[in-house]
Amino acid sequence: MKDLNHTTWHQFISDSTKFSVDDQHCLLDLVLTAKEQQAITTRLKIFTELLHGQKSQRELASQLSVSIATITRCSNYLSHMSTSEYQRIKSLLHHSN
Q1: Which of 1, 3, 15, 32 lies at a 20 to 30 A Cα distance from 61?
Q2: Under 8 Å CB-to-CB from 48, ≥6 apart: which residues?
Q3: How far apart are the first and last CA of the chain?
Q4: How far is it, in rounded angstroms, from Cα 36 to Cα 24?
C-alpha cells in the first residue's frame, strides 16, 4: 500500500505542474485542510531557517510558535541527508524565497 500511495503522490505532483498556479491552489485547497497547509508552510520555514543557520533551535521554536521537538525532527532529517540531497533542498528552498 505504501508504494501505491507513493506512486499516487508522485503522479499528483507531476499532474499538478500542468495546471496554472490558481488551479494548483484550488487542488491543494481540495486535498489539504487549512491546518495542514499551515503545517506545511511552517515546516518549510523551519527547514529554510535551519539551512540558513543563523538562529538556534530554541529561537526558531519561539519565533514560529512550534515545539522544540518539531525543530529537532527537521534538524535530524537534514542531518541524515546525503550531501547532494542537502544541497538540492538548500537550493530549492533558497529559490522559493
Answers
A1: 32
A2: 93, 94, 96, 97
A3: 35
A4: 16
Spans of the chain, pLDDT less than 50: none
**Per-residue model confidence (pLDDT) at position 34:** 95
Q: Which residue shows C-alpha cell 530549492?
A: 92
Predicted structure pTM score: 0.80
Query: Which value, to the nearest 10 degrees, does the dihedral of the CA atoms of residues 62, 68, 74, 75 take?
Result: 100
Amino acid 37: pLDDT: 95
User: Is it true that domain 33-97 has CATH number 1.10.1270.10?
Assistant: yes
Domains in the chain: boundaries: 1-31, 33-97
